[in-house]
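Table S2 (text version). Query chain:
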Amino acid sequence: MSEPDPKSVQDMTAVVQTLLQQMQDKFQTMSDQIIGRIDEMSTRIDDLEKNIADLMTQAGVEEGEGGETKPTEGSAQGAD
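Corresponding structure-token output:
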């Protein structure tokens, strides 16, 4: 059995290295996009939580322990 041609081994090595580099670049791009979307989602959730808290304050409701809501003192609820 003859040994492989050194030129063909070099060519194959170059092709494999190129493919691996392309895959790494694509994975890095995808990773950056995912992280960007997670950061954006986090910001939107923070804004949503703030807006909900503001609405609850305007409605005269505060959040108690365990996530239950109750009227704040001096609110219009139950003032009949």
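Notes on Table S2: The chain has a mean pLDDT of 85. The CA atoms of residues 61 and 72 lie 5 Å apart.
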